[in-house]
Amino acid sequence: MNHRAALVASVAFVVLAIAFVPAALAGKGSHGNGGTTTGTSTLSLAVPLWVDLNGNNLPNWGDTVTFNVSTTATTEPFLELDCSQNGVVVYGANTGYFDSYTWPWTKYMKLGSQMWTGGDAACTATLFMFVGGKQKTLATLNFTAYA
């Protein structure tokens, strides 16, 4: 596969991954109805020692990260992680941070993709909830994932 075809395939995968959670929740009326539009929320990064490849306790390409999430705004918070290099999104993932979420292992996100094969990336984690079918941001966290 040539470079351009690989890039197109990778972009399609990232777009599909980002779109998957909201599409999966369509028609499930209880999601997003578990809270209010107010409350307090905190979000922090965690690099589990068992997946910190170089042991520096920092997010690096190839490491797996997760997040410490707390909110009083909803019982069903979601998190989106996007990482970019030179303004191009090279990684995207979504997951639910509540006990009944169908795919609990997705709380562990490996930093890397077909489009991100190394180098630093600017990452943004967004904690959000659904209110009336719309996404409402509860907290954001920006960090650098190092090479």
Describe this structure in words.
It is a single chain. The chain is an alpha+beta fold and 147 residues long. It has one domain (3-28, 38-145): Sandwich (Immunoglobulin-like), CATH 2.60.40. The chain has one helix at 3-25, and strands spanning 41-46, 64-71, 78-85, 88-96, 109-110, 121-131, 134-145. The strands form two sheets. It has a four-stranded antiparallel beta sheet. The protein has a three-stranded antiparallel beta sheet with strand order 1-2-5, with no helix packed on it. The longest helix is centred in the first third of the chain and has 23 residues, at 3-25. It is globular, with a radius of gyration of 16 Å. It starts with a helix and ends with a strand. The model is unreliable at 1-35 (pLDDT under 50).
Helix content: 10-25%
Shape: globular
Strand order of the largest sheet: 4-3-6-7
**Biggest β-sheet: count, sense, barrel?**
4 strands, antiparallel
Short description:
By secondary structure, this protein is α+β, with helices and mostly antiparallel strands. About 15% of the residues lie in helices and about 40% in strands. The protein contains one helix and seven strands; from the N terminus they run αβββββββ.
Features:
single chain, 147 residues, alpha+beta, Immunoglobulin-like, four-stranded antiparallel beta sheet, three-stranded antiparallel beta sheet, 7 strands, 16% helix, globular, disordered N terminus
Give the topology.
Blueprint lengths: L2 H23 L15 E6 L17 E8 L6 E8 L2 E9 L12 E2 L10 E11 L2 E12 L2
